[in-house]
Amino acid sequence: MTVEFTKYQGLGNDFVLIDNRQQAEPLLTPEQAQKVCDRNFGVGADGVIFVLPGQGDTDYTMRIYNSDGSEPEMCGNGIRCLARFIAELEDKAAGASHSYRIHTLAGVIVPELLPDGQVKVNMGQPRLLAEQIPTTLNSPEEQVVQRPLAVNDQNWLVTCVSMGNPHCITFVEDVASIHLEKLGPQFETHSAFPQRINTEFVEVVRPDYLKMRVWERGAGSTLACGTGACAVLVAGVLTARCQSAATIELPGGPLEIAWAGGEEPVYMTGPAEPVFTGHLG
Ligand SMILES: N[C@@H](CCC[C@H](N)C(=O)O)C(=O)O
Question: What does the entry list as the binding residues for substrate (predicted)?
Answer without folding.
Answer: 13, 66, 76-77, 165, 198, 216-217, 226-227
